[in-house]
Write a structure and sequence with these properties.
This protein has 695 residues and is mainly alpha-helical. It has helices at residues 2-20, 41-64, 71-79, 83-98, 102-123, 126-137, 146-160, 168-196, 213-225, 238-247, 251-262, 273-289, 295-299, 308-341, 352-364, 368-371, 377-392, 479-496, 517-523, 529-532, 547-556, 561-578, 588-596, 615-618, 628-646, 651-662, 670-678, 685-690, and strands at 201-203, 232-234, 395-398, 410-415, 421-428, 440-445, 448-449, 455-456, 459-463.
């Protein structure tokens, strides 16, 4: 009787807690969207803790059942574990990146080890692993379609490649390393954001030569907000930094900004030097425990590349193809700068954007600032959303009754051509101190078919850091910012158009070197007149973008292509070097300099280093995977060549791209999906032609 009373009391207490915590009960909101204003830091912590407990109970229920292991009672059941936990984690960590606070950052440090420990315990759960292994070894006895087979294979390999076979001391060591890695990667990302927010560069009217009026107005507004009228406050936020380096006529200030931006996180309270070297070493030790010589060897097993040798093969192939063009570009730029200044000029890294923009304008009479009036943000939204409508019939309806997590955030209901509901898209465009730099797509909920057969549709978010509106002007974007929008929107379509049975295979849950294909594919439309016509119009006069400007965008698209390629290759080589090390890195500065040498454009600058801010690989999930941007670029150029052949809005080609690429998620090997769409494997030829390297 006492036990019964205690059980009833426990259940009642749990129900009361669920009723009080908005993250632990169904959302009474339009389209089951998160009521963000109800979530507190305490609610997140409780929901994550309780979610972990519930997920552990669900795992235990799988392992203690007496039924013979089969696909449904083990593999599908495991895929459905942790629904409450996933909901809390997806919301919380998305907001840590997009709308954070010190309290949320502190909580992320507390819960990350718990989540890592839970994940590790699942992988090292021997009864669970035995059931998974038994199903996998008897897979021919089950009636499985291609998606079922992929889920089974992915589940089995996620265990096998993550330490399920470890025993004794190795098993305990693996747990310790995974928890340490979780804390280190969280600290790395927080250090990047925190130090970035400490920089304030105060200038006077005498320091503004060459800067665009919009940038000056924004700096004046930032200074006025701090009570310093007549001064100008600049930060290192990406739009501000990029614009300053491109237009400032003061080489001393360009150098100052460059050294500040490129010297971040090298020393002081937010230094990442020891953090990143330890991250690399912990990853290497984990790989060694799992039987691989390096982290890259282990990490690349579930990618299109497959192994480090294939990654280096691509990087080297592109380096060799672009190196002659780079030498021509830099010779031309140096000659131009010297003639412009009237004396010999040595191009320093803080000079490149400035002189390259001048050269670009000279050759094409083209300045990105001239095009801003034609890319007013609301018009760009119409154009980018309209691209999906033209290609796939998808529509976007504003929903003011759906709450955003910040006043800047807008929500749209996304429907298919036949009116079928596809999901919700959140847009978050402007910088703020609570948001990390860069641009990304993420989701608060992924698509799946639930246990009752319902198609649960995704809640997707695209987050960027665009030029903010001022008191007298709306947000006017550069072509580069429009390209960024197209990129992240491509990711969102991958998440929204998916129709898969299993959450772990839906949307962007694909091989890492395939995930950038939909996003980079979208970028191709920026230089297509047929796409720009109709929405790219002057925000004051309504005049469509002139043909001459469209021609300039097209003509200048190849300008500096070799430099940009080498820059990306530098990121790829650096990433691979950190994750193919076979011993701890003792001197990070010397290490990076040696790695960059094959694609080096400028001599290393003392007091600067890329790696301490390289969030993609040290805290963003791209470890041993940054090459995937170039890998996917080869794919996207080859894919868009098909559209160029058939017509950029050809419905049959668009339908094939949607059905084989955007809809299928990770349900099949991406190489097979791509061949089904294109008819052959991709080569670098289309990319070389697009960049003007191959005539």
């Amino acid at each position: 009787m006492k036990k019964t009373i205690l059980t009833i009391f426990t259940v009642f207490a749990a129900l009361m807690t669920n009723a009080q915590n908005p993250l632990l009960k169904p959302f009474d909101t339009p389209l089951d969207t998160p009521p963000f204003h109800e979530f507190t830091v305490a609610a997140y912590e409780e929901a994550i803790d309780r979610g972990i407990e519930e997920a552990r109970r669900e795992i235990n229920a799988i392992t203690v059942q007496r039924s013979v292991p089969d696909f449904e009672n083990t593999i599908v059941a495991l895929d459905r574990v942790g629904g409450d936990l996933n909901r809390a984690v997806n919301i919380f960590f998305n907001l840590v990146s997009a709308n954070s606070s010190d309290e949320m950052m502190d909580l992320s440090m507390r819960v990350s080890p718990k989540l890592s420990a839970y994940s590790t315990d699942v992988i090292l759960n021997e009864p669970l692993w035995e059931r998974v292994k038994q199903v996998y070894e008897n897979r021919d006895k089950f009636d499985l379609d291609a998606e079922d087979q992929m889920l089974l294979t992915k589940t089995y390999e996620s265990f096998a490649l993550s330490g399920a076979n470890l025993q004794g001391e190795d098993r305990e060591k693996f747990k310790e390393l995974q928890q340490e890695l979780s804390q280190l990667t969280t600290r790395f990302g927080q250090n990047v954001l925190k130090e970035l927010n400490t920089y304030e560069i105060w200038l006077t009217a005498d320091d503004l030569a060459g800067l665009p009026a919009d940038l000056v107005a924004e700096a004046a507004a930032e200074a006025a907000a701090k009570g310093r009228e007549g001064e100008y406050l600049f930060t290192l936020a990406a739009p501000t930094y990029i614009s300053f380096m491109k237009y400032s006529e003061r080489p001393d200030l360009r150098e100052k900004m460059y050294r500040l931006y490129s010297g971040r996180n090298m020393k002081g309270e937010y230094s990442n030097i020891e953090v990143m070297t330890r991250i690399a070493e912990v990853r290497r030790q984990i790989a060694n425990l799992l039987g691989s010589e390096t982290y890259a060897d282990q990490s690349l097993k579930r990618t299109m590349a497959g192994n480090p040798a294939n990654v280096y093969k691509l990087l080297d192939q592109l380096r060799d193809a672009y190196r002659p063009a780079l030498e021509e570009e830099m010779a031309e730029l140096t000659k131009f700068a010297s003639e412009l200044e009237g004396h010999p000029v040595t191009i320093n890294p803080w000079d490149y954007s400035y002189y390259n923009n001048k050269l670009k304008s000279s050759k094409y009479a083209y300045d990105e600032e001239e095009l801003r009036p034609y890319f007013e943000l609301n018009n760009v939204v119409d154009g980018v959303f309209g691209l999906a409508t033209k290609l796939y019939g998808v529509t976007f309806t504003p929903r003011e009754d759906i709450e955003g997590y910040h006043p800047d955030v807008k929500a749209y209901q996304v429907n298919d051509a036949d009116g079928t509901y596809l999901g919700v898209l959140y847009t978050d465009f402007f910088p703020r101190t609570s948001k990390r730099p860069g641009a990304w797509m993420t989701s608060f909920r992924d698509q799946k078919i639930d246990a009752d057969g319902n198609d649960v549709r995704p809640l997707v978010s695209i987050v960027m850091n665009f030029t903010k509106p001022t008191a007298d002007k709306p947000s006017l974007l550069t072509p580069y910012e429009v390209e960024t929008f197209l990129h992240e929107f491509g990711h969102s379509l991958h998440g929204l158009l998916t129709r898969c049975k299993y959450e772990s295979l839906s949307g962007t849950a694909v091989y890492r070197d395939f995930v950038e294909l939909p996003s980079q594919f979208n970028e191709n439309y920026l230089t297509e007149k047929e796409f720009l016509d109709g929405w790219a119009k002057h925000y004051l006069t309504g005049e469509p973008i002139p043909q001459e400007y469209v021609d300039k965008i097209i003509a200048s698209a190849q300008h500096g292509a070799a430099y940009q390629c080498m820059r990306q290759l530098g990121f790829g080589y650096t990433d691979m070097a950190w994750h193919t090390t076979k011993a701890p890195v003792e001197d990070a500065v010397a290490f990076e300099a040696a790695v960059m040498e094959p694609v080096q454009v400028f001599a290393p600058v003392e007091g600067t280093l890329m790696s301490p801010q390289f969030s993609h690989i040290f805290s963003g999930g791209y470890a041993a995977g940054y090459y995937s941007y170039k890998w996917a670029e080869v794919l996207d150029a080859d894919a868009f060549a098909k559209f160029k052949e058939d017509g950029i809005f050809n419905q049959e080609t668009a339908r094939s791209f949607r059905d084989n690429i955007l809809r299928r998620g990770g349900t099949e090997n991406p190489a097979e999906l791509y061949r089904r769409f294109r008819g052959h494997d991709a080569t670098i030829d289309a990319l070389l032609e697009r960049d003007g390297i191959k005539k």
